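Something for you to look into today, if you have time. What I am after is a single protein written out in full by you. I want to see for myself how the chain folds. Could you add the entry underneath, on a fresh line?
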Amino acid sequence: MSHGLSKDMPLGLRMALTQNMEAMSRFAELSESEKMAYIQGARQVRSRQEMEQYVRRLTQSGLQ
């Protein structure tokens, strides 16, 4: 089953989403433009811990 995870997505984001099923579901519900904006934001993340926090925010308050 595809959740909109793309090979163009940063590896750290893909890994963080696969470890957080709620965030993956939320990501899958985003529009294409929201997904692109979210992926662009993930490109600014510089550590695993930051990425986990970035993905966790998706489940806490929606698109950041």
